[in-house]
Amino acid sequence: MRKRSAFLWTLLVLCLALLLPAATVAGSRYKAVVLYDECTLVGGINGFGWAELTVRAKEVRRSGVNSFNFKSELQELSNGQWTRYMWWDDETSLWFPNNRANHYHTIDRYIDFNSNATMYYHRIVITIEYWSTWDLISSKTVIGTSC
To answer: Which domains does the chain carry?
Structure first.
């Protein structure tokens, strides 16, 4: 009876461990957190809608990261493929030391649509690059809601 009970408990623990996402177990030191994501075809300055995506990059403790670089673009869905419609200038955070503190930088991208934009679906895409002094350590891409 004890062997059967131990086997069942082991099986239960293994099943629960497999259900946890890998990021929960591993605890990535580079994070991208979506603070706001909305896309609508109503309202805005021109009356044809708008899109906004706000993302926070986070570096946890001594990860080797010293700065964040953000690449942002507005994409449109045309003939079944997402293509770049326009882009914003890259934004780079201030340099910070590789110490035990957590470091953050938040970026907000907003666009008002005009009458030409109503012919296609659009979305904002932000790619965060995590840099050490000279090397790219990691990158994460956040894709906003399309409308």
So the answer is: 27-143 (2.60.40)
Helices (H), the chain: 2-19, 22-26
Query: What is the torsional sign of CA 38, 75, 45, 128?
Result: positive
Burial-class residue 128 by CB neighbours within 10 Å (0-12, 13-18, 19+).
buried
Beta partners for 21?
none
Low-confidence ranges of the chain (pLDDT < 50): 1, 4, 6, 8, 11-26
Spatial contact of 75 and 123, defined as CB atoms under 8 Å apart: yes
b/e 83-120 (16+ beta carbons within 10 angstroms → b) = eebeebeeeebeebeeeeeebebebebebebeeebeeb
pLDDT per position as a tens digit, 90-111:
988 888 777 777 888 999 999 9
Tokens describing residue 44: 């805005």
Cα separation, 17 vs 48, whole angstroms: 47
